[in-house]
Specification:
With 151 residues, the protein is α/β, with parallel strands linked by helices. 35% of the residues lie in helices and 21% in strands. The chain has helices spanning 12-27, 45-51, 60-66, 85-94, 111-115, 138-145, and strands at residues 2-8, 31-38, 55-57, 71-74, 100-103, 120-125.
């Protein structure tokens, strides 16, 4: 149903954790492709990507070019997906409800954790990103395409 794009840079451990959370959604057919967007990691990030069978792109434009699905899920590599995220997202896609923010779990419960916004990814139609440049500005994409739907 969708292609996942994960921007990384020297994020071996975070990438392995995120890919592990995507496996059940891939088995269920929700995630059809994972593209790791990496412009030059010096740790084992690229090896983790290749071992997981993910495609690798060095620019956002290249990631868009190889994305095989009409819907894209762009996830920060350090996002900790909430339990049930895949069911909520699958239902959202089935209802053809449009773009959405995919909220992650907060990192900790202290005052500083509560002051930071919850990390989030973005579900967006590939067609909405035509003409995107080579760089990814996830914050700007969230503002432009995130809408009011939060999963």
């Amino acid at each position: 149903m969708l292609s996942v794009i994960v921007p990384t840079l020297n994020s071996e451990r975070d990438l392995a954790n995120l890919l592990g959370r995507l496996v059940p959604a891939a088995v269920d057919g929700l995630v059809a492709q994972v593209i790791v967007l990496d412009g030059g990691s010096t740790d084992g990030t690229l090896e983790v990507s290749e071992d997981a069978g993910a495609d690798v792109a060095s620019t956002f434009a290249a990631a868009l070019a190889i994305a095989r699905r009409d819907w894209l899920l762009i996830l920060p590599v350090d996002l900790r997906l909430r339990g049930g995220w895949d069911g909520a997202l699958g239902g959202h896609l089935t209802r053809r409800a449009g773009p959405a923010l995919v909220l992650g779990e907060r990192d900790g419960e202290g005052m500083l954790a509560r002051l930071r916004p919850a990390p989030s990814g973005l579900l967006v139609a590939k067609s909405a990103l035509k003409g995107a440049g080579p760089a990814l500005d996830l914050v700007a994409l969230r503002r432009k395409h995130g809408g009011s739907v939060r999963l």
